[in-house]
Amino acid sequence: MTIDYEARLSTLKQTLAAMNLDVIMITSPANVFYYTGFLSDPHERFMALLINNLNDTTALFVPALDKDIAASEAAISNIVSISDEENPYEILKQALNHEVHWFGLEMKAVSMFQHRQLQSKFPNAHYKDIQPAMNQQRTRKSREEITYLREAVTIIENVLTEGIKRVKIGMTEIELAAELEYLMKQFGAVGPSFSTIVLAGEKAALPHGVPGDRTLQNGDFLLIDFGVVTKHGYCSDITRTFVISEATEKQKAIYKTVLNANIAGIESIKENVPLKTFDIAARNVIHENGYGHYFNNRVGHGLGIEVHEEPSIHKNNEQLAEAGFFFTIEPGIYIPGYGGVRIEDEVYINEAGVAEVLTSFPKELHIITP
After folding, report:
1. Fewer C-beta neighbours within 10 Å, C or N terminus of the chain?
2. CATH of 5-138, one of 3.40.800.10, 3.30.428.10, 3.40.350.10, 3.20.20.70
3. How far is CA 24 from the centre of its chain?
4. What totals of helices (H) and strands (E) does the chain contain, helices first?
5. pLDDT of residue 97
6. Quick check: 264 and 282 in contact, CB under 8 A?
7. Which of 3.90.230.10, 3.40.50.2000, 3.90.700.10, 3.30.70.20 would CATH assign to domain 140-368?
8. How far apart are CA 284 and CA 24, in angstroms?
9. Which DSSP letter does residue 117 get?
10. Greatest CA separation for the chain
């Protein structure tokens, strides 16, 4: 299976044509990957996909140490390498070799330093934001992308199946997180898509808490939120919450409420309704059961090449859902000092305009018996 990067670039050019841009410069590594197939983190070095509309050429500027791999992986034949001793903006100016009046840039990706460098080399240039057009394109996932996303889900669910077998009383959150990230590699992932979250007991009330030295004990909630990046560059993101040894009636009630909220959110998904519908459907279940005060964040987010992408699934989002949208549904209840529950699934609005759930790890309350 191959991605048609030329078609992606052609679509972008057509979308941006009305903006009358002289040059389109894409610097976000995720966007560079989306349009070229070359995935790299240049760190502080300069990397950019440059579309020159004045002479209808396209070039990929990369650090010199990445030249060979870019040449082998990118769907762009014109590779311009920049050594650490060179000024990349001077190289850019030489490559363009004409006055630029309108640059198309990703406004959220360009730093003040980069902006000043561009101003120094192109003093008469003005800038327009191209990020919304790329977000719109990337938000609609193709069936080929769903195949890659499903691969990421399969790996992380295999990791979770094996990982919970390794839970032991007295082990720390960070020890379990390390076990899970080791398993990711064993099951074929490049690595985690974000820093693995493992939270026990009262710490499960922290939606984005950090694993630490807190030990796992009988009766604890155990919240695991994690994902992988595959060799194809796509991410997964799943959360399941367990109870160790024995659950109290209160824990069971909280869990059931979150599970019902998760189900309600997923059952509400279809095309041509506002995205807020999915958040509200899940949120109402939590509110009606008296826990509304303990759910203060959105119910989901898009993902794909990055673990957080458009669309944002929140209660005020009036944007209409479309076939091709791919996002999480992850309601939760977080009670400070007591603990919390989150259940997160990945959902695709398929070609028929209905929900297709990629995650399949069981959601009924699972009591882990170490």
Report:
1. N
2. 3.40.350.10
3. 24
4. 10, 19
5. 86
6. yes
7. 3.90.230.10
8. 44
9. H
10. 72
Rounded Cα gap, residues 39 and 74, in angstroms: 9
Average pLDDT over residues 61-88: 96
The distance from CA 276 to its chain's CA centroid, rounded to whole angstroms, is: 19
This prediction's pTM: 0.95
User: Would you list the DSSP string of 148-178?
Assistant: HHHHHHHHHHHHHHHHGGG--TT-BHHHHHH
Residue 216 and residue 176 in contact, taking contact as beta carbons nearer than 8 Å: yes
Residue count of the chain: 370
| Cis preceding-peptide flag for 274 (omega within 30 of 0) | no
Is the confidence at residue 52, as pLDDT, over 80? yes
Q: Region 63-83: what's the mean pLDDT? A: 96
Q: Tell me the domain boundaries of the chain.
A: 5-138, 140-368
Q: How far is CA 143 from CA 75, 150, 193, 340, in A?
A: 20, 10, 21, 35
Output the DSSP codes for 196-234.
PEEEEGGGGG-TT----SPBP-TT-EEEEEE-EE-TTS-
**Mean pLDDT across 150-167:** 98
pLDDT at 116 over 90: yes
Q: Which helix (H) or strand (E) holds 89?
A: helix 88-96
Unique residue bearing structure tokens 């990629």: 358
Q: How far apart are CA 259 and CA 150, in angstroms?
A: 22
- Report pLDDT for 98: 86
Provide the 3-class DSSP secondary structure of residue 54.
Answer: coil
> How far is Cα 344 from Cα 142, in angstroms, rounded to an integer?
22
Q: Give the pLDDT score at 316.
A: 98
